[in-house]
Design a protein that fits this description.
With 390 residues, the protein is an alpha+beta fold. α11 packs across α12. The strands form four sheets. Strands 1-16-15-17-13-14 form a six-stranded mixed sheet. It is elongated. It starts with a helix and ends with a helix. Helices cover 25% and strands 25% of the residues.
């Protein structure tokens, strides 16, 4: 009677199909013959201690100044460019010249202002009696001097002033999670990253979850917004043609195993330590958890393991999957988990105590061995059931 109950697929608690049913009904299988349960991902196991904390807390953030520079010195120059709208004014020292008629005494000033014009695609602007003058990519002072030289033989001591009405070639685009995504015109005073973010209305998302990416001439670099604010050297000058992308990345972590709550949890608008993240997930279940086996899964840079003296030659690539293990039976470990910073997409796993696995076995054994005469046959069925559970 009990043997029949055990061998039935529906007699034991289950939230899905049995492993043997999944394997037997598969059309094709992609498994390892030697280790059918192995994933094949190499990883490192690191016990959480004082030495590890020193290296984790000194981890460096990504940098803008390291990729582009621009944090020191003056603002970048803003030459004239294609699409700029300019206005040209020509002064003469006295009336009767090329632009100022003899009756100029009845008019204010000894100058003439030409209509506004846009620098053409060929990079030139037009000035009467001077023809087409190359302007794009040149400083305003140089273009003024060229026009004065051409007019010198016809006008009376000409002086030229070029005014930028609209600088379309010196703009940056600010996109993403800002209140007013837009193109922002740069000035000769020089604008930095935070200046243009402010002109775009500021962030529309929490700064702790916001990343700022600068794209310039095919290169890009990303920095966390709070790090940008806290590190003045990262607040570099922007240059014409830059694109700034502001992106919110909702930070989450997963908790599995013998914790009070399982699932995905948000960091929300604060940074978390391992201790705080564990508390947010309900802590350890007193009846199930093994306090000595609190594990955190994370991918880290290879250099981190090298600092710990670990030989990383066995790992390919620049990153290594690492399992950090904390022993909460050690009183000092509670201080350690409160200093160990969590990162986005970390996975916390709390393993079951060995006694819990024994209790599982005894519960199955008790369920199937209801009579003395059924012990022998039930033992075989119990072996198969436990094999399936494993």
């Amino acid at each position: 009677m009990s043997t029949t109950a055990l061998t039935s697929c529906t007699s034991l608690p289950s939230s899905g199909p049995a492993v043997k049913d999944v394997e037997s009904q598969a059309t094709a299988r992609v498994t390892s013959a030697k280790k059918p349960q192995a994933v094949g991902i190499d990883y490192a196991l690191v016990d959480l201690n004082k030495t590890v904390l020193n290296f984790v807390q000194s981890a460096t953030a990504t940098s803008l100044v390291g990729g582009f520079g621009g944090g020191r010195g003056g603002a970048p120059s803003l030459p004239l460019g294609v699409g700029d709208i300019v206005q040209v004014s020509i002064f003469e020292s006295q009336s009767g010249g090329l632009f100022i008629p003899n009756d100029a005494g009845s008019r204010p000033g000894n100058y003439v202002t030409l209509p506004q014009q846009t620098i053409d695609r060929d990079g030139t602007l037009s000035v009467p009696y001077a023809g087409r003058v190359r302007a794009a990519g040149r400083a305003v002072e140089d273009v003024q001097r060229d026009i004065e030289d051409v007019l010198a033989n016809r006008a009376i001591e000409p002086q030229v002033v070029i005014t930028k009405v609209e600088s379309r070639s010196a703009q940056v685009s600010v996109l993403g999670d800002v209140r007013t995504p837009s193109k922002i015109e740069l000035t000769e005073a020089g604008e930095r990253i935070l200046d243009v973010l402010s002109e775009a209305g500021g962030l529309s998302a929490p700064g702790v979850e916001t990343y700022v990416t600068l794209q310039r001439r095919g290169k890009s670099a990303t920095v966390q917004y709070d790090h940008l604010v806290a590190t003045p050297s990262e607040n570099i000058y922007v240059a014409p043609g830059d694109t700034i992308l502001v992106d919110r990345e909702r930070r989450t972590y997963l908790a599995f195993g013998a914790s009070g709550l399982n699932g995905r949890f948000d960091f929300e608008e604060s940074n978390l330590t391992l201790g705080e993240a564990l508390g947010k997930a309900g802590g350890l279940l007193d009846a199930r958890a093994n306090p000595a086996q609190l594990m955190l899964y994370r991918t880290v840079e290879k250099g981190f393991l090298s600092k710990l003296g670990v030989d990383t030659a066995k790992f390919t690539g620049n990153t290594v999957p690492v399992i950090f293990r904390a022993n909460l039976r050690d009183p000092g470990a509670f201080f350690a988990v409160q200093k160990f910073p969590m990162q986005d997409k970390d996975v916390i796993y709390v393993s079951n105590s060995d006694s819990v696995e024994v209790l599982k076995f005894l519960e199955i054994l008790n369920a199937v061995t209801s009579t003395a005469s059924g012990v022998t046959s039930d033992a075989v069925s119990t072996r198969d059931a436990i094999r399936d559970l494993n």
